[in-house]
């Protein structure tokens, strides 16, 4: 795992989460904010690419941080203009209150019924932030997301929380 620079640790960072699923299953991917809190952050727009043959976008909904900020969360999908086989999901989060660190939103996808076993990448293509007053805010791009797809008859491994297992 690559070390995160001190500047990146001090920035407000948007991360696309990860999850596991089997063919035909729904899967929720969290969008989280971490790092230093931006006091007047009021909006975020992020574009995420994903393979359209494997995942179908269903909806975007507010997470706890988004709910606390009274955020409106919208997701729209279009074909990626420069790469065939990819969809581009634009997620727009517009808040009435300052956005705090934590889970901003959940992105729900449905895995194709014929999806092969493997890792599907959800890549953060662009990221913009704005203050409550609509002034540009600097956000750092964090981790890209992924979905680990297992075979239908395969057991998905459970990972215990370190604090509850020691």
Please supply descriptive tags for the structure shown above.
single chain; mainly beta; 166 residues; 12 strands; Immunoglobulin-like; disordered N terminus; five-stranded mixed beta sheet; seven-stranded mixed beta sheet; 53% strand; disordered C terminus
Strand content: over 45%
Derived structural class: mainly beta
Q: How many structural units, i.e. domains?
A: 1
Main pleated-sheet profile: 7 strands, mixed
Shape, please? globular
What Rg do the Cα atoms give? 16 Å
Mean pLDDT: 88
Low-confidence stretches: 1-8, 160-166
Beta strands, count: 12
Tell me what the structure shows.
With 166 residues, the chain is mainly beta. It has helices at residues 6-10, 64-68, 162-165; strands at 12-16, 18-21, 26-35, 41-51, 55-62, 72-79, 86-94, 102-111, 118-131, 136-137, 140-141, 145-149. Strands 2, 4, 6, 7, 9, 10 and 12 form a seven-stranded mixed β-sheet that branches. It has a five-stranded mixed β-sheet with strand order 5-8-3-1-11. Strand 9 and strand 10 form a beta hairpin. The longest helix has 5 residues, at 6-10. The model is unreliable at 1-8 and 160-166 (pLDDT under 50).
Summarize the structure.
This protein has about 170 residues and is mainly beta. It is about 10% helix and about 55% strand.
Secondary structure elements and their pairing?
Elements: H1 6-10, E1 12-16, E2 18-21, E3 26-35, E4 41-51, E5 55-62, H2 64-68, E6 72-79, E7 86-94, E8 102-111, E9 118-131, E10 136-137, E11 140-141, E12 145-149, H3 162-165
Parallel strand pairs: 1-11, 2-12
Antiparallel strand pairs: 1-3, 3-8, 4-7, 4-9, 5-8, 6-7, 9-10, 9-12
């Amino acid at each position: 795992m690559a070390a995160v620079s001190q500047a990146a640790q001090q920035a407000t960072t948007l991360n696309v989460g990860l999850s596991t699923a089997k063919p035909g299953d729904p899967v929720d991917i969290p969008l989280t904010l971490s790092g230093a809190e931006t006091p007047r952050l009021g909006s975020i727009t992020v574009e995420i690419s994903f393979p359209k043959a494997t995942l179908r976008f269903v909806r975007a909904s507010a997470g706890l941080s988004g709910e606390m900020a009274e955020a409106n969360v919208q997701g729209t999908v279009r074909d990626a203009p420069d790469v065939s086989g990819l969809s581009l999901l634009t997620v727009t989060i517009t808040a009435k209150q300052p956005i705090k660190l934590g889970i901003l939103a959940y992105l729900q996808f449905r895995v194709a019924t014929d999806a092969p076993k493997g890792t599907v990448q959800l890549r953060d293509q662009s990221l913009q932030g704005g203050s409550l007053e609509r002034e540009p805010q600097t956000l750092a791009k964090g981790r890209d997301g992924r979905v680990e797809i297992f075979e239908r008859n395969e057991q998905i491994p459970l990972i215990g929380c370190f604090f509850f297992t020691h």
